[in-house]
Design a protein that fits this description.
By secondary structure, the protein is mainly α. About 75% of the residues lie in helices and about 0% in strands. Helix 5 packs antiparallel against helix 6, helix 6 runs antiparallel to helix 7 and helix 7 runs antiparallel to helix 9.
Length: about 170
């Protein structure tokens, strides 16, 4: 039961989650709480509030790895023009998020946001066949894209506003 609840929490469009009832934590559950080894090396993975743009790019990279794995195993139902369009827009979004995470600016945020919006607007159509086979999986992916959008919004409010706010002159 706890494992299912943890996985459900991870799949929802949330920036994080909290767990209580420590007496129920076993060694098996403790391993579920550990971030993947590659994520442990990224500060943004453990502290998305500090570096939301880097976290957004990292989370999108994780999504791409999942999609690429499924494509290699012929378990992602994209073919022909849909696959080509998906691949092109996925790379465009990756590039926009990486540029934003490397050097945050209002103009790069606008490009990343526009790319994400374009990707999300076509995502449901691309995933129509996949939804028939595995609707939960497609919903999880949509939620993860929504989380990336929330990270961009948060980054705009916190990171970019802080950089654009003039510092009061000292007397």
């Amino acid at each position: 039961m706890a494992v299912d609840q943890i996985q459900l929490s991870r799949d929802l469009p949330a920036s994080g989650y909290s767990l209580f009832a420590v007496e129920n934590l076993s060694n098996e559950l403790q391993t579920l709480f550990q971030p993947p080894k590659e994520a442990a090396t990224h500060t943004s993975s453990s502290h998305p509030h500090r570096q939301p743009f880097q976290t957004a790019a990292a989370r999108y990279t994780g999504l791409q790895r999942e999609w690429n794995f499924l494509l290699e195993k012929n378990q992602l139902w994209l073919r022909g023009a849909a696959l080509s369009s998906f691949g092109t827009q996925a790379k465009d979004l990756e590039s926009a998020l990486n540029q934003l995470s490397t050097a945050p600016s209002s103009s790069r945020l606008a490009v990343a946001r526009a790319s994400l919006t374009a990707f999300q607007s076509q995502f449901k159509g691309w995933m129509r066949s996949q939804s028939l086979e595995n609707p939960y999986q497609v919903k999880v992916w949509s939620n993860r894209l929504a989380t990336i959008e929330r990270l961009l919004n948060y980054g705009e409010r916190v990171v970019l506003k802080r950089e654009l706010t003039p510092v009061a002159e000292q007397p």
